[in-house]
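Extended Data, panel c. Modelled sequence:
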Amino acid sequence: MVSVPGPSYGSAQVKKEQETPEGVVFIPHPPDLRKEPMREEWREEKVGGAEKACKKALQVRHKSDLSDDACKEWHVWASFHSKYKMASKVPNLPFTERVEGDARTKAFLPPGQSAQCSFDGTPQLFLPMLKRMSFRFPRPLITWDIFSEEAPPEFPTQGRACSNEADRGAPSSHQGQQPRDPREVNHVVHMMQKQSTWKKGQQELSAEEFVKEASGVLDAEELKDGNLYIVELEDPDGEFSLGLVQLETVAGGHQLKGRWFKRLSTGHKWPAFVRFQRYMDGDVWITDELQPESFLLPVEDEDLTDSSPNVKMDTPTLKSTFVARLRLFAETYGHHHKQPPKKNAAKPTAAPPKPAAKPTSPPKPSKPAAKPPANVPREKRVRGYTDPKPAARQKRAS
């Protein structure tokens, strides 16, 4: 019985039976990497199957649902597979396959004309890839120059403390190279990287790129009348000191006014999809004069849910990808706020006394009415805003 590593990283070792202490030796000696390794040939049970499939697509479908460009592409594929039936015969990529039109292709590729397709990826030369990968990490058992010296007859059992190109006097272009971002290079979905994990990584990359391109504040030249914008608030609306307005320019564009929307969700954390509606005072859409530096981000149609563009001036809804970008933008530029601690209200020792009689009319308040709820942006003034008519505002509120 021998112990071998478990099926996943960090899992417990597994005991297995092994006939010989050395196990099964697949590579008996170090390979000779002074020349390009040869590709292994493989046999096809149905030689020419791919070529026949391409030609059949042209014969059956080209008159019904294939465009001329699609027919040309299928013809190029058929030509490629007719030449390279074995894996060892496929040319190293990138490669361009070119075909000429003739009497058989006159329906989509007349004689005298040509079509081509370029292919990239694998197969490609293996030795350059090995050179790029070989010394990204220490290789203590490699005690010779594997790309220019003859390999030893057996694998070394003892090596240097650190053997790499730098030890041999040659500067290494990979020393100190940072590992690549898994979100950028890992595109295969498997048990250890589910589809949801991959999509989340792509969302994060998109948000990071969005924030890099954002300047933090829009220039006055970027503002367009009638469009939706994210603006900075004096007081937070939940976790962000951000609000949504529709821009209205007056006085020849020298004065900016914002028609307010209010967030319908009441929690501190903004949900994945954030829905707004007009902030109204009766039948009047509440509007305030704003400073140009208050405008932070534009809200385009693609930033809204599919059903929002038709109602974006009434009840717009921000889609989850834009909210993710907005969250990273707020954290980067200081518009994100933690939830304040909850205050524990003291329990009353006795029930409050009931009124002797129900009043016939509500008493008049001796001071202005209370402010609206925290999620209503009316009292969350834009930074630098001053109310030109406080008396009228107080009268309306009461």
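Residues 192-339+373-386 form one domain. This feature is highlighted in the accompanying rendering.
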